[in-house]
Amino acid sequence: QVQLVESGGGLVQAGGSLRLSCAVSGILFSLNDMRWYRQAPGEQRELVATITVGGATDYADSVKGRFTISRNNAKNTVYLQMNSLKPEDTAVYYCNAKRWYDSWGQGTQVIVSS
What we know:
Strand content: over 45%
Shape: globular
Number of strands: 11
Order of helices and strands: EEEEEEEEEEE
Distance between the termini: 40 Å
Oligomer: single chain
Largest sheet: 7 strands, mixed
Helix content: under 10%
């Protein structure tokens, strides 16, 4: 059974930082590209960052230079370091693993106050 559990969200002032974590079980983590998505109220879910099995990364234009995705295969965990946060980063953040399955965590809320 695939399980993804996000943590690390919270309330932060604009300009602040948060580090999200996603602990993964039930799959061979090291063989999965991992992704972070976010969904703001009334908006569609959007892809924020991707890290491949080889460690290559890609980011949405809106977060480039501010967010960093990383992974620790020994801990089966993917991270999202978020710096210089803006109110428009407010959303529920989800991690995702997809191969023949498409698995999501329950999400972690990030609120950035102005």
